[in-house]
Amino acid sequence: MNTPAISVAMSVYNGERFLEEAIASVLAQTFADFELLILDDGSRDSTRAIIETHAARDSRVRPIIRENRGLIASLNQLLAESRAPLVARMDADDICLPQRFARQIEFLAAHPEYGVIGSWCEDIDENGRPWPVASTHRHPTDHEGFLAAIELGRPLLCHPAVMFRRDLVLSVGGYHAAFKHCEDLDLWLRLASITRIASLPEQLVKYRHYDEQVSSRHATEQQIGAAVAKLAYKERLAGRPDPTAELEHLPPLEAFDDLFAREDVCREVRAEVAPGLLYSTDGLRGNGFDLVLEHLRDGGRREGMWRTVLRLLRLGEPSRALKLASTLSSTTQAG
């Protein structure tokens, strides 16, 4: 078979709700020289049937059907089985605009110094309507802006909107298993030192928000992983070994001081993660709540905490609201 110009990498787990629309948006691209690898990660719904129907109709669709192993294993398998020098990521709940691939491959052909190119996104809800909570920061459109965004803690790339050079991603070991739910951020931070990265200033993907997506259900783990990925990035910049490089799983938060061989790393991570959890229903109802309490007991910043007491009441969590109020009162008296 002829080698395609682009391999499209899509992993799906129980994705029947939006999968048809996602596949159709890929197959409708104006740049047509691609293979679409769709990995069914052990779905229990009609995902497999949808994939196989499209494969029977269009030879560019390559199904990979197997048992559930999780997203990171799936992404690395898609990388390994891709035949093209360029890989375009795509999620099973988003929508590509028709010119996406054409615009990105044109940019990479004209800018060999860039290894990763994303795009701006149009935020939509589960029904395809405009998402009411739009980001105030656009993804950076040159590498200098990308590096600045790392330092400022701003959004770097929209993962399902990126196209990258496969050999570069393989050269840094692909996606690292330790960074579950933030594997893309860790990858961009590792690539930032060996290639240039940016996004096209065009909305080429419709990015869907809904309650069941991973970023809504695993907020605490995602934010802790993101904080650790940034710490590892700073270690590499300083010329020190990356203590996360060989990990399969991140250790418990309390072990981060030992992992990075210095004091107060655990406190630093809590201080970075706690403010974001104040707006996460999953975080406040899950183990993120204990992290917020420990942050306060460490003498951490208190902005927004009393409003969070009210929010917990509205969420139907009166015991947690009382516990947060008590911790706020006791830490005020101690101070």
Automatic annotation (TrEMBL):
The answer, when asked if Transferase is one of the entry's keywords, is yes
Sorted keywords for this record are:
Glycosyltransferase, Transferase
- Give the Gene3D superfamilies listed for this entry: Spore Coat Polysaccharide Biosynthesis Protein SpsA, Chain A (3.90.550.10)
Residues forming the Glycosyltransferase 2-like domain are 7-169
Give the Pfam families listed for this entry: Glycos_transf_2
The family database entries (SUPFAM superfamilies) matched by this protein are listed as: Nucleotide-diphospho-sugar transferases
State which residue ranges cross the membrane: none
| Alphabetized PANTHER family for the sequence | GLYCOSYLTRANSFERASE (PTHR43685), GLYCOSYLTRANSFERASE EPSE-RELATED (PTHR43685:SF5)
In Swiss-Prot or TrEMBL terms, this protein is called Glycosyltransferase
